[in-house]
Amino acid sequence: MIRALSALWLALALAAQPAWGDTPPSAPAMLLAEVYAGNVDPSQYWVSEKFDGVRAQWDGRALRFRGGGLVPAPAWFTANFPALPLDGELWIARGRFDALSGTVRKIEPVDAEWRQVRYLIFELPGAAGDFSERVQQMRAIVARAGVPWLEAVGQARVADKAELMQRLDAVLRAGGEGLMLHRADAPYRTGRSDVLLKLKPWQDAEAVVVGHLPGSGKYRGMTGALQMETPDGKRFRIGSGLSDALRRQPPPIGTRITYRYQQLTKNGVPRFPRYLRVREDF
User: Fold this and answer.
1) At residue 207, what are phi and psi to the nearest 5 degrees?
2) Domain with CATH 3.30.470.30 in the chain
């Protein structure tokens, strides 16, 4: 049954491919996660690690960033990818996001750097069937492709919330950032949806740098904190997470950054914010 569905879906996907001369869409449609709130039955979901990588979608012919731009990967990287749509993350390793970002942003790709990159797939855009069927399809697709840097994200089932929390703890202790939960019976869809949930011990958000606050003590002569502004106009400071290099040369005013925090105050201001990275518009 799954084999028949796969063959039919593949034929439809190939027929729908745009010609090479067609103008690509500005951004591929993607499924985006809601935040896990603890009010669902985890046994109804497939659970995987949340990878801190760069989202990219393979349309069967080209690899594109979330914003729609072409990923400047070496030709050999995608040469043997299957001629059908894949969605996933470009990734090097836990804690290596900055190295990954530097690699994938280079217009002229550096082979030695790309040899470290893997493409971890977690969805099949447009595929028929529920997510459980697509998990099996992804495993089969990767096995047939035989590309060492093309991998299906490991998916597992848990019995209850206690087992889910145990899995989260194991990932965090190993240096990971959290988990993703994808409802097993969900058909493929795009946009933000609760069929996909992200579970982390903190929240993350974006804000704009509106000022550089001077440092004191060992940070005298450097930036002590960034003055930030949220999309709804709330202002707050971020000092935690800034390296000495960032303090000497902080992100320019107007830069969007990603930060993490524990919760919001009653006034809507992030509690215990920590700098993560400059928001990249790939």
Assistant:
1) -150, 165
2) 2-16+27-199
For 77, residues 6+ apart whose C-beta sits below 8 A from its C-beta are 63, 109, 114, 117, 119, 149
Cα 119 from Cα 97, distance rounded (Å): 14
**What would the pLDDT profile of 98-150 be if each residue is shown by its tens digit?**
899 999 999 999 999 999 999 999 999 999 999 999 999 999 999 999 999 99
CB 262 within 8 A of CB 274: no
Is it the case that residue 4 has pLDDT exceeding 50? no
Separation of alpha carbons 96 and 241, rounded Å: 15
Measured over the CA atoms of residue 66, residue 206, residue 249 and residue 240, the dihedral's sign is negative
DSSP code of residue 17: P
* Catalytic machinery residues: 50
The CA distance from 95 to 117, in Å, is: 13
| pLDDT tens track for 209-264 | 999 999 999 999 999 999 999 999 999 999 999 999 999 999 999 999 999 898 88
How far apart (Å, rounded) are the C-alpha atoms in residues 277 and 231?
A: 17
Unique residue bearing structure tokens 């804000």: 207
CATH 3.30.470.30 holds for 2-16+27-199: yes
Q: Is 203-278 CATH 2.40.50.140?
A: yes
